[in-house]
Amino acid sequence: MRLRLRLRPRPRLRPLTRRFPGAVAMLAAAAVLIGGCDVARDAARDRIAGLRHVVAAAHARPAAADHKPGGPKAGSPKAKADAWRLVWSDEFRGPARHRPDQAKWSFDRGGEPQWGNHEWQYYTDRPGNVSLDGHGNLALTARHERVHEVRGKKCGFGPCDITSARLTTKGRFARAYGRFEARIKIPKGQGLWPAFWMLGANVDKVAWPGNGEIDVMEALGRQPGTVHGTIHGPGYVAQGIENHTTLARGRSLADGFHTYRVDWAPGKLTWYLDGKPYGAACAGQLKHGQKWVFDHPHYLLLNLAVGGDWPGPPDRSTPFPARMLVDYVRVYERAGR
């Protein structure tokens, strides 16, 4: 005769987040306080913040659909509303060949030697080099051409036959700390150098690199599968403190749009590609003779450079015109601040 035991079923436990509503918030705070230049910790913090968002969304009414002209943008800012608050953005809506919003952006013009990298391009504000594309993107276009602006002028480097564009929010918007993000499709080709970056807003009083430079995204057209995130300051000027990541299986960042981001807190920056952290820089990791110069407002820049010390010159294989498409630029602050 078999002995049959009747086991009492275990009581069904409610999820931790239901029984202790503050648990997720406390875990998130603990993850932030752990600190350190540790990308794994940043990933854990993001997972906790994501869990918090899921819990909050489960108790909230469904959000209304995004009915902006042209349809919803990828990566809606509403998705980050629980942990982050949008404070500045440009979605680049508007007709083709129109300028971007001049209340938000101004144009850097001219060629070397003012850029300091032995670059070949001459920056203009012409629609052929910088304008909306009519599909919700900003297009920065490098062209192989000779234009009136450079006729009769001495070129610092190159044959004076490359034009491109560089935009800046200097004097219009600057901020210290938060989440700085852009969705971009980069071009590929020898000598191309697209970038999304920031400079210290005190640049008129404190010369570079003392004002600080934060490169959210740089890529080389000859290595379009790799993104670089770097800071430059006193004692780490040319080399910088650099992080990078490369797409698997030989994929290219030029094949589609990708999201480039830096999360910036006092004494620390963390870089992300498509929402995944790949590198960090902290004040505590600096060596003797190096100085942390990033705890003050910075303004934004977008540009498509051609040639220079790092990417090298373009050649016959370089495709012109080459376009860098920007879907959006968004800046967030932490909610509750």
UniProtKB/TrEMBL annotation:
Residues making up the signal peptide according to the UniProt record: none
GO biological process, one term: carbohydrate metabolic process
Gene Ontology MF: a single term: hydrolase activity, hydrolyzing O-glycosyl compounds
Keywords: Hydrolase
UniProt keyword Hydrolase present: yes
Originating organism: Streptomyces luteoverticillatus
The protein's name: Glycoside hydrolase family 16 protein
Domain spans labelled GH16: 66-337
Region listing for Disordered, in residue ranges: 60-80
